[in-house]
Design brief:
With about 425 residues, this protein is mainly beta. The protein contains one helix and 35 strands. The chain is elongated and about 140 Å long.
């Protein structure tokens, strides 16, 4: 029987007076009855192993004793392994199991309860001593450490055919002939290749020698599973092919293709502006760039052109997009920034004649949708200015040259002015 956690049971003692023989017999009977109850309570919490000493290792799972070592179940390199070293008389709260010398196979480890887990990485024979240590606290009974020598033999990895899925298949281009490097597998011999599930891109086929070839007719990402039929086993592997449409730079937001270049883009001076391009096809991510833009505008990473133009005029620009493969496409754009208001540089008022109907329109152009016309100074008698149309009309009453300053007001508070000499003949 193993060691009792209750300790030795003391002999009965008599303290005080000596009882009479009858009384003494009664006392002894009560004492023996108490011993039976105490022993029953104590033994109820014990585990009995015939002939076992506390702390001895059980003969399983490492049961075969060869030489001075107990042989554990054989492991295989590359395969998960799990065993539990056990004690003949378990005391889980009182014992700690450690490896005191030697070493486990690489890839395995053991916790203090004796659980050996892991995946061995190297074949060979590995011996080690496991030692049981005892705690003397919390109701545990301190005992001398005990140990045992164990041995775990690790077999070489099992030879197995495995489909190689790295680095993957190269991209294909729609409408262009495609041939991928032959599929490969390691660890065995492949007799043939076949499609296990999924679909190849339309236009491509898988030959029995593992070659995927043809001319793809549809763009997109196509995922499928191939099977290597061979020895010592067959294996499958998932793959995909990205069929690319040609890289094309069109107009945002849809990326619509442009039939005629350069693309005309009109803007208003000092007015917030937003426009953009969008690439399609190729392989993302895309990178956009421009050789020049009108002053005040910026090309953003998503291909939009935004800002507020600050200088009237025309700017010819080339916008370029490059995809992840380095393929490039370009778009020619002509940006025209129109002033909101401007007087014509050379046009002058027509000469009028006294008594005859006169009409002349102020030579103002620009992108402003709203225009208001004013004047200061002396306008020829008989004439008046239409504030909405900019026409000076009427019948002159007096000859002479009249110096008049005209104003034009437009959107965003824009205003311009110019002084003209209006001549009226007699």
């Amino acid at each position: 029987m193993g060691l009792s956690p209750c300790g030795p049971i003391p002999e009965p003692t008599h303290v005080g007076h000596v009882p009479s023989p009858g009384a003494e017999g009664s006392l002894m009977r009560r004492f023996r009855f108490s011993l039976v109850i105490a022993a029953a309570v104590c033994l109820a919490g014990m585990t009995f192993v015939p002939g076992a000493a506390a702390g001895d290792f059980a003969d399983e799972p490492c049961s075969t004793n060869v030489g001075d070592a107990y042989i554990c179940p054989t492991a295989t390199a590359g395969a998960a392994y799990s065993i539990d070293l056990k004690l003949k008389e378990p005391w889980p709260e009182c014992t700690t199991i450690v490896i005191s010398s030697g070493a486990l196979p690489p890839g395995l480890s053991m916790d203090t309860a004796g659980a050996i887990r892991g995946t061995p990485t190297q074949a060979g024979s590995y011996s080690f001593f496991a030692t049981v240590s005892w705690s003397n606290s919390g109701g545990c009974i301190s005992q001398s450490p005990s140990d045992r020598k164990f041995q775990i033999n690790v077999n070489p990895p099992v030879q197995r055919l495995v489909v190689n899925t790295s680095p993957g298949l190269p991209d294909a281009n729609i409408g262009q002939p495609y041939t991928a490097p032959p599929l490969t597998a390691s660890g065995g011999t492949v007799s043939s290749w076949s499609l296990a599930s999924g679909s190849l891109p339309p236009g491509l086929t898988l030959a029995s020698n593992g070659t995927i070839s043809g001319t793809p007719t549809q763009a997109g990402i196509f995922s499928f599973t191939v099977r290597a039929n061979g020895s010592p086993n067959s294996d499958t592997g998932g793959m995909s092919i990205f069929v690319l449409a040609p890289l094309d730079l069109g107009l945002a937001p849809t990326g619509a293709r442009v039939s005629t270049q350069p693309v005309p883009v009109n803007m208003k001076l000092a007015t917030p502006f937003s426009w953009g391009v969008k690439a399609t096809g190729g392989r993302e991510p895309y990178v956009y760039s421009a050789d020049r833009l009108p002053t005040g505008l910026t090309l953003n990473p998503d291909g939009t052109v935004t800002g507020t133009p600050t200088l009237a005029g025309t700017t010819r620009s080339t916008i370029t997009v490059r995809d992840a493969r380095g393929t490039a496409d370009t778009l020619q754009v002509t940006f025209t920034t129109r002033a909101l208001l401007a007087f014509h540089k050379s046009k002058q008022p027509r000469v009028g004649k006294v008594g005859r109907l006169y009409s002349w329109r102020l030579p103002v152009a620009g992108a402003s949708e709203t225009k208001i016309f004013l004047f200061s100074g002396q306008i020829p008698p008989g004439l008046e200015l239409d504030e909405e149309t900019g026409f000076v009309t009427g019948t002159p009453l007096r000859a002479g040259t009249f110096r008049v300053k005209f104003w034009a007001l437009g959107d965003a508070g824009t205003q311009i002015s110019k002084t003209y000499r209006v001549k009226i003949q007699a």
